[in-house]
């Protein structure tokens, strides 16, 4: 018998040669769960954003009616607060997960990957916290 030569089928992972063979447990399902989250959050975001755009731009006079009073009236309802909050959180988590994948794919050095992911997490937290704060503390009675 000859020794396996690089570049031949001998150096392929066993899972490629026998797809039905049991796989070793990797210990973590994070990447699988992140992949599933992207699919489900993308569908939900599509529904939320199309609903948002339809209501804001097409119904009852369209964009001409959007002003401070319209936003104040909209955010006085817990339904619209939750709708907008869900859009904000899902968009941040969905986009952040996508950028995390891009960082993993293109950042060559571990230190670069660490700092880029750190900046990503910090910016995501800032946007989510600020957006959540604005949605729930919005006061339509501004005093000059």
Secondary structure: elements and pairs:
Layout (H helix, E strand, L loop, with lengths): L13 H4 L12 H29 L9 H7 L3 H29 L3 H28 L7
Helix pairs in contact: 2-4, 4-5
Protein name: Succinate dehydrogenase
GO molecular function, one term: metal ion binding
Main location: membrane
Write up what this structure looks like:
The chain crosses the membrane at residues 36-59, 114-136. Keywords: Heme, Iron, Membrane, Metal-binding, Transmembrane, Transmembrane helix. It comes from Nocardia stercoris. With 144 residues, the chain is an all-alpha fold. Helices cover 67% and strands 0% of the residues.
Number of contiguous helices: 5
- Termini Cα gap: 88 Å
The second-level CATH architecture of the domain at 40-137 is Up-down Bundle
The CATH H-level homologous superfamily of the domain at 40-137: Fumarate reductase/succinate dehydrogenase, transmembrane subunit
Determine the strand fraction and express it as a percent band.
under 5%
Order of helices and strands: HHHHH
Helix vs. strand class: mainly alpha
Question: What characterizes the major β-sheet?
Answer: none
User: How would you state the average pLDDT, rounded?
Assistant: 85
Helix-residue proportion: 55-70%
| CATH domain class name of the domain at 40-137 | Mainly Alpha
CATH fold call of the domain at 40-137? 3 helical TM bundles of succinate and fumarate reductases
């Amino acid at each position: 018998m000859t020794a396996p030569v690089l570049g031949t089928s001998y150096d392929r992972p066993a899972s490629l040669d026998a797809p039905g063979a049991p796989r070793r447990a990797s210990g973590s399902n994070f990447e699988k769960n992140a992949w599933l989250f992207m699919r489900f959050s993308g569908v939900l975001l599509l529904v939320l954003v199309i609903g948002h755009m339809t209501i804001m731009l097409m119904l009852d006079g369209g964009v001409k009616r959007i002003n401070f009073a319209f936003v104040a009236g909209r955010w006085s309802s817990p339904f619209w607060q939750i709708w907008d909050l869900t859009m904000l959180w899902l968009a941040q988590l969905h986009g952040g997960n996508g950028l995390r994948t891009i960082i993993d794919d293109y950042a060559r050095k571990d230190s670069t990957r660490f700092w880029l992911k750190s900046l990503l997490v910090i910016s995501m937290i800032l946007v989510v916290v600020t957006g959540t704060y604005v949605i729930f503390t919005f006061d339509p009675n501004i005093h000059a």
